[in-house]
Amino acid sequence: MRAPGENPRYVVTSLSDTPKAIYRKWYCARGDMGNRIKEQQFLFSDRTSCHHWWPNQFRLLLSVMAYTLVYRLRRLALHGTELGSAQVNTVRTKLFKVAAVVVQNTRRINFMLQSRYPHRDQFEKALANLNSG
Length: 133
What we know:
The protein is mainly alpha-helical. It is built from 4 helices and 2 strands; from the N terminus they run αααββα. It has a two-stranded antiparallel sheet with strand order 1-2. It is about 55% helix and about 10% strand. The protein folds into 2 domains: about 35 residues; about 80 residues, no CATH class.
């Protein structure tokens, strides 16, 4: 009988290293790669609705660029916040899908957010982090 919360793993391999090192270096990396693939799918990279190769390739390229932008946003603007380690879909839902009025003047662009926007603090903190960097 094992204690609650324990989740033993067994990996059979011919690699010559300590079991802990093999598990962390190879097995955990495999799971992490699965998470990256899932995040790409959240950005619609698996959608190939055109019958021709080039448009589908271009759509995939846009998806990869979007992932790179969100990744950099998490590292620069959302570091140390609740969304700093959030999945792409969560960041997209909470920060990008925002109803706002955009007013452009000569020197600045103002975003007028809804007064009841639930993630306003996180949005403003991300903007402040981007402005300071």
